[in-house]
Amino acid sequence: MKFRAFALTYLFISCITYSFAQQRPYYTQYILNNFIINPAIAGIENYWDVKASHREQWVGLDGAPVTSYLTIQGPLSKNTMSRENATSIRPEGENPRGRTYMEGYQSTDPHHGIGLTFLNDRTGPLNRFALTGTYAYHLPLNERTSISAGASIGIQNLSLKTTELDFGTAYPVDPVVGSNSLINTIRPDISLGVWVYNARWFTGLSLQQIVPEKVGFNTGKLGGDSITVIGGKLVPHIFLQAGYKFMLGEDISFLPSITAKYVNPVPLSVDVNAKFQYRDLLWVGGSIRPKDGFAAMIGVNISNSINIGYSYDITNSRLNTVSNGTHEFLIGFLLGNNYGDWCPKNVW
């Protein structure tokens, strides 16, 4: 009996440790909302940008990650141009994001940006809910290039739903878990970022979860001795991003980009992305994660107030035999859009 209890406890600890290896959610459509990765994005546009996303990873696999978030970010004290009688009707004429726009692009005036993020990420019996507030400051480097720096500070609640754990019929309750149906731990969630951008290119560096901490869920009894389950350690995540915009004609642009992610001790992960956009109306794209998988994406700017995006991921791993890919949906709202922008001004 004691051996079985020890074995179950060991498996329980191993399960938690493995699950926390994916401590931050994966995203495919961050190219539509880099704010979810880098806090320096807050306030970069002329409007308030609201994004809601839902992602179901490895559909068909029981306990696979499910992630939803809502982000709100916008500028403060920013001097912006306004179009008289801006409407949701797309104006006729040349591409508003074409060569003429690129040639006349100017760097931003110094201004502040703020934002909020609500995020819920569930993997099997483990759940992470995070609430963070963001501040960023933007200033020009020269006539055409700007730089911003930002920070997000908040809390994350990590919970374990013990009713979803199965220890078998002979020993249905693990002594470490006890009789609690839900156990929680709260930790700080702090991120930092910097972003350099103009009409042609961008590059950014961000650090998420910069405070490394051990995660302990519960103290229980095993063989008369008190023990504490340590579910793992929250470790920093480092993201490096860069992209460049090419005009393939007056109406079509091509934006290749790359995102590198490093989490010690996991090997470096790299996304290679490509996005083709028709005027400021429609875009299609793809993403490749070497040795992991690839994704296809599509998005439509319905008006200067609403845009939507969808992506489908396929993994190259053995999970492909027991799951049906990954779906991610995103909808965006542009509030206070006095200039009547149909798509972001700053590259992506």
- Count up the domains: 1
Provide the CATH architecture: Beta Barrel
Beta-strand percentage? over 45%
Q: Give the strand tally.
A: 17
CATH homologous superfamily grouping:
monomeric porin ompg
The name CATH uses for the topology is Porin
Q: Order of SSEs, N→C?
A: HEEHEEEEEEEEEEEEEEE
Q: Name the shape in a single word.
A: globular
CATH class: Mainly Beta
Q: What strand line-up does the widest sheet have? A: 1-2-3-4-5-6-7-10-12-13-14-15-16-17
Number of helices: 2
Quaternary status of these chains?
single chain
Which residues sit in consecutive blocks of at least 5 with pLDDT less than 50?
1-20, 82-88
Mean pLDDT: 83
Structural class of the secondary structure composition?
Answer: mainly beta
Radius of gyration: 23 Å
Largest sheet: 14 strands, antiparallel, barrel
CA distance, first residue to last residue: 59 Å
Classify the helix fraction into a percent range: under 10%
Protein name: Type IX secretion system membrane protein PorP/SprF
InterPro entries: PorP/SprF_Bacteroidetes
Organism: Limnovirga soli
Keywords: Signal
